[in-house]
Amino acid sequence: MKDRLRAAQVPLDVQNAILGHAAGSVGESYGVGYPAPVLLEAVSKINYTTT
Description:
By secondary structure, the chain is an all-alpha fold. 45% of the residues lie in helices and 0% in strands. Helix 2 (12-19) packs across helix 3.
């Protein structure tokens, strides 16, 4: 899934939110995260066909 998110050029912080990965710095951990529409837009960019 990580490779597909990268290929879809989803920003790293949005990738981490989708995959449930921890933030890399203390500042990144502030706030409540991304709203569902932002995550939906990112997931919609993923190409699910096999290569």
